What does this fold into?
Amino acid sequence: MTPLSRPEKFLWCFVAALLVLAVALPGTPQDPDYHRFADARTLLGVPRAMDVLSNIFFLALGGIGLVCHFAGRLDYPNAAMRTSGLVFFLGFVLTAIGSAYYHMDPNDRGLAWDRMGMVVAFAGVLGLVAAHRVSVRAANILLPVALAGGVLSVAWFAATHSITPYAVLQFGGIGLVAGASWLPTHGKGPNWAALIAAYALAKVLEMEDAEVLHLTQGLVSGRTLKHVFAALAVLAVLLPLARRRSPALHP
It folds into this structure.
């Protein structure tokens, strides 16, 4: 067996630290205020309509990603990135469904379904960064580990109402992406700076839900815009990997 490279050692040490934190840190209950959204307007019979309908961006962009994936329009440098890309795009489609369900009747049960789609997309992100910046071998292991860990963290939340494992996965995972994005590349891959920026902006908009609604004079809330900018993370993967058509030959 080939010895672990330095990037692989960095990756597995980081993952081990996250697993320890997820188990060792005390449980943190979900804040009930998380379910109180600034924009509660009902449109066409849909409660909290703007927050519900804005999930169309997850569905549309995730769907475009899947179409491009199966149509062979994405130039993956290796099979591990191809598998991770499929999981990533599928996760956005699942997020659209779970998030729309949750925002129609916000509660912990619905939030668990919302997060289930998100952890699928996030596992895809971790597989992509491993395949692009660490090694194919690392990606082939990290993708199923992240997928299983994400599902277990949501199941733990559903059973205990503690967000600790999920929070460790989310914030520790984005830290891993940020750290690994400084490593050398293995062929073409996602625009990691754009993906991290979309994630960070989405989190800020989520936290400033009511303030954004106030600043836009009731037009749109932070939560609604969060869905838009989080969905745009798909483009950070889709555009760099899109196959470039060869220029037409002229006689």
Q: What stands out?
A: The mean pLDDT is 95.
